[in-house]
């Protein structure tokens, strides 16, 4: 008999509805700036009226509780208002990236059951099989109250990659989003924090940026699109706009740290809180040095997935020079119960992570077979939960803190040895000129796999010498961990959300 899963509870949670929290802040902070979009500033009073006007317009268009409204357009004050206006009307918000292939967008609109598409800029060029309206065509002022919150009411649908080649939609209810927003409000460095809006609006971290800021009375500042891929310009923009809170995927944070290393002084920065989210945080020498130079700024490691939004958090403490290379993902948020399903009875604290409680999504849209595999029924937990989501992540639980180990479905075996690719990447980042590194396992066509790495190096540095790199790695890693090749590239490919595109790296290295 396999041992029962270990349980870790985040404590009780009775969060207010995020719409009520936003309304409270909007009334209290009326003339103060809520959103900065380029040269335009929108006050809390203006934003509240705009949101109410959009909700009234949606109601007039026949949209009500339970309906789905797709929204597309660049990151802007208008799209933020449309997001909140959709939720205000009781409908479910579906963000769409107009840069996606037309077939992918058509699938999302059909699969989600969207009844309306709102667009912020020009009319979409892709085929729209549902009625569409410009956001500018909806009222900009209104007075309607929000639809009464219910914990099971869906707030948004977000699409994530699917194994069939088509993205799969995930529904996220108020119970999940309200909990995350309330936690964010209570754990910010201070209540009215000035936050950069960096994440694409179809990436779930955007809800932390937008709602965690506006429901806490802060100011949301939209990052110009052209700066998202330029860490040097982004660094200057952060200072010029007195940004205090920033959410970044690890690779974007690493590139920002590399850019900061070339600055004589960082006194122009107002950063007080950086949150790493979306992929495993690695505390590289560059990142440690950045925070050594920003002693009043804290670094948080956030963990979650589209199916449950954010579920754990960990704040790194002490001198940055002492931070572990792979920091823990931390402890669960209030209302969240984590289960560790052990792989081996000898190590009951190591296993697959399951999520139960407030963060739990009702499941994937129109995917009954996949739901049966991932959203599972479990024996009653210590907190009485009987439903949980299998994350596919292997973790270790020690002293009430969870550490991410690897993806279960991407377990890599080389010559019979289980290899952790992150461990190789951490060692590569310790080499003097390496600024970023990704390691992938490629099939050799003969039934076995070999390791290959892509790296970027500091500006002006020579390409990485593969023989020397292998020799350095052998000082700390066993032979199966040593990559067969090392390729220096100008930049690592990234997804639109800013994470490393590992599939693109693998395709590039396989073609060499």
From TrEMBL:
Q: Which GO terms describe its molecular function?
A: phosphopantetheine binding
| AMP-dependent synthetase/ligase domain segment(s) | 22-365
**What's one GO-annotated cellular component?**
cytoplasm
Q: Which Pfam families match?
A: AMP-binding, AMP-binding_C
InterPro entries with a match to the protein in the record: AMP-bd_C, AMP-bd_C_sf, AMP-binding_CS, AMP-dep_synth/lig_dom, ANL_N_sf
Domain of life here?
Bacteria
Q: Where is the AMP-binding enzyme C-terminal domain?
A: 423-499
Name the GO terms of the biological process aspect. amino acid activation for nonribosomal peptide biosynthetic process; secondary metabolite biosynthetic process
**Official protein name in the record:** Amino acid adenylation protein
